[in-house]
């Protein structure tokens, strides 16, 4: 799917660029975006390593274990196919906790590890398992508790009260996450019946 | 509500303090474990890099060619019926693909209309409750070697749509 999507983005973008007479800008931007991506990755190397390092310490100290135990009843409900004592529970729990705390970069490595374990449980098939679908849908529904970046941007651009949106943002996040959970639960039931 | 601003300043240092402090109490070799984990972070970024380059080039081309503006204009009659400001259509679309591209559009809106305007507040709330659907899916599924993603995209788009609608309703309710 992503093959077509990415291909169409490029093809349509270039065609529109020609029709708009903006092909010179398209040319500059394609080269600059590639450069930008690398610059972003270099910054990310530092931030990402900080969080994977800190999370490794948390794991060694037994902190993630404690959080995982607390999240376990919820995970049992959301992922009925995962064996109870499996390591993937720990990865999913740390990923969710990092997401909730708004530590985006810390969430990704744990999430990728969770996907790796889910793949093993799925016997390496190239079709996503129900648990993979649920995990990603919940992940994408955004669990964020405090949108730290947005608050920073708001104050930077002279907002009288940068945090005034927090309450509404929290409710909106909760609603979208609940919608994602409901969707995955229904889709899981339907796919099992066919 | 002001204390929430202080919390955002304190949350990251506090988490680091708590984890490292707890590690010391548990007699964990903290620095050794940290460097071990940091190495994992390197590997993760190296894995993501090709995907990121590809997506950022595609978004860049869509922006520079004027395709995104074209999309906003095509969608305008529809968004007018739904009372959704068409100015935010590029933002919601871009957010599906790239967080950094969306961030630049957010700053643009704050500059143009102000963060305390209706558009500014709606933007803030939408950004807080949506994720980069296509980006996240491609990175995660590529790592897991998944080619058929089944109902994941439908579910992700559904929860994003619900989030955007909820943002619109809430902005009207709270600030309207």
From TrEMBL, chain A:
Protein name: Spore maturation protein A
Organism of derivation: Anaerocolumna cellulosilytica
Pfam families in alphabetical order: Gate
InterPro entries associated with the record: Gate_dom (IPR011642)
TrEMBL record, chain B:
Domain of life assignment: Bacteria
GO cellular component, one term: plasma membrane
Name listed for the protein in its UniProt record: Spore maturation protein B
């Amino acid at each position: 799917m992503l093959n077509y999507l990415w291909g169409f983005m490029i093809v349509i973008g270039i065609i529109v660029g020609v029709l708009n007479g903006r092909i010179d800008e398209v040319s500059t931007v394609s080269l600059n975006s590639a450069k930008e991506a690398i610059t972003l990755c270099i910054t990310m190397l530092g931030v990402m390593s900080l969080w994977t390092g800190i999370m490794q310490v948390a794991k060694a100290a037994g902190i993630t274990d404690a959080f995982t135990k607390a999240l376990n009843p919820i995970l049992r409900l959301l992922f009925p196919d995962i064996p109870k004592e499996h390591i993937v529970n720990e990865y999913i729990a740390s990923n969710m906790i990092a997401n909730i705390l708004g530590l985006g970069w810390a969430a990704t490595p744990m999430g990728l590890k969770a996907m790796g374990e889910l793949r093993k449980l799925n016997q390496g098939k190239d079709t996503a398992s129900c648990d993979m679908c649920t995990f990603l849908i919940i992940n994408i529904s955004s669990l964020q508790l405090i949108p730290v970046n947005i608050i920073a941007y708001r104050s930077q651009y002279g907002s009288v009260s940068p945090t005034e949106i927090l309450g509404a943002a929290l409710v909106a996040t909760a609603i979208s996450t609940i919608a994602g959970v409901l969707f995955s639960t229904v889709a899981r039931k339907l796919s099992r019946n066919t | 509500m002001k204390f929430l601003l202080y919390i955002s300043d304190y949350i990251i240092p506090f988490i680091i303090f708590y984890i490292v402090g707890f590690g010391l109490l548990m007699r964990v070799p903290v620095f050794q474990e940290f460097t071990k984990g940091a190495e994992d972070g390197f590997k993760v970024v190296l894995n993501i890099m090709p995907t990121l380059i590809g997506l950022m080039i595609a978004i860049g081309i869509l922006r520079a060619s004027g395709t995104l503006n074209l999309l906003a204009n095509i969608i305008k009659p529809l968004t007018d019926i739904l009372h959704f400001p068409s100015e935010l259509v590029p933002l919601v679309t871009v957010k599906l693909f790239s967080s950094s591209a969306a961030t630049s559009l957010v700053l643009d809106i704050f500059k143009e209309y102000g963060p305390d305007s209706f558009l500014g507040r709606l933007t803030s709330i939408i950004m807080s409750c949506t994720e980069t659907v296509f980006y996240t899916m491609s990175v995660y599924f590529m790592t897991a070697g998944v080619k058929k993603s089944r109902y994941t995209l439908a579910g992700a788009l559904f929860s994003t749509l619900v989030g955007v609608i909820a943002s619109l309703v809430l902005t009207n309710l709270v600030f309207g």
